Amino acid sequence: MTHADLVTSTLDMEVLSMDVDTLHPDVEESLYRLRVGSQVKYITIEPGTFPSDVLPFPMDLLPLLPHLPPGNWVEARVAQYASRPVVSKIARFDFEIPRMERETAAYRAIKGCGVCPEFLGHIVEGDRVIGFLIEQLHGRPAGPEDLQGCRNVLQRLHGLNIIHGDPNKHNFVVASDGTVTLIDFENAMLCRSAEQKDEELATLPAQLSETTGRGGVVLTHLAY
After folding, report:
1. Distance (Å, whole) CA 218 – CA 43
2. How far apart are the first and last CA of the chain?
3. Using CA atoms, how far apart are residues 32 and 48, in angstroms rounded to an integer?
4. Residues 15/33, Cβ–Cβ less than 8 Å
5. Torsion sign over Cα 84, 85, 87, 92
């Protein structure tokens, strides 16, 4: 048996501690501290992922967990995504990895703030993280008529002391109800400078009037 097989086998996993709300298992997250091989991992299981009657019982739960990747990762989230299309973003070359890491860090910082798609998880190949999955948004690229909505969402991002770095029209997705969402954070960076934030906001009218197609991409989606 290889090391990779060992650390992902339920035969070499045990629950060290857990926090399961047995009264509201379909509403609250379930938290587990596991020993996986010689490592300690922290697993969060979202409500509705597994039958509620197995969550408090490690012997029943462990065989249901998905294949855990090897490596020195510490935290993971297990969820079910209802077979809806999702968007994958993968680093094809080594030089793309720093941008991927920057984007992942940005999603972590802005999670739950209503400015970006939902971050669903990482894509792994062996023991390497090569990309991530996000929810697929439905909408259109922004135009000049969406200036105020784009300004609002960008200002919310700035309120977290993050600048986007590439606020072109294709990085604003406008839903049918007018809601504007930001995507593509590979150039995002922490920034406390009010001057730099104002400079990024000042580019919006020109960005939204752009007609060259700059920033437009074809998205690949996967269904699970």
Report:
1. 34
2. 30
3. 16
4. yes
5. positive
63 alpha-carbon distance from chain centroid: 26
Handedness of CA 56, 59, 61, 67 (dihedral sign): positive
Spatial CA neighbour of 30 closest among 76, 93, 88? 76
What is the reported pLDDT for 88?
Answer: 86
Residue 188 zone, left/alpha/beta (φ > 0; ψ -120 to 50; rest): beta
- Residue that the structure tokens 């097989």 belong to: 5
Distance CA 222, CA 83 (A): 9
To 10 degrees, what angle do helices 147-158 and 194-202 make?
160
Around Cβ 21, how many Cβ atoms within 10 Å? 16
CB 208 within 8 A of CB 174: no
The rounded distance, in Å, linking the Cα atoms of 219 and 211 is 20
Cβ–Cβ < 8 Å for 107, 117: no
Question: By the 8 A CB rule, do 151 and 198 touch?
Answer: no
CATH numbers and ranges of domains, the chain: 3-78 (no CATH), 82-224 (1.10.510.10)
* pLDDT, tens digit, 9 for 90 and up, residues 61-115: 998 888 777 777 788 888 876 667 788 888 888 888 888 888 988 998 998 899 9
Query: What's the CA gap between 196 and 159, in Å, rounded?
Result: 13
Q: Give per-residue pLDDT as tens, 111-163.
A: 889 999 999 888 877 667 788 889 889 999 999 999 999 999 999 999 999 99
pLDDT digits 0-9 by tens, 74-84: 888 888 766 67
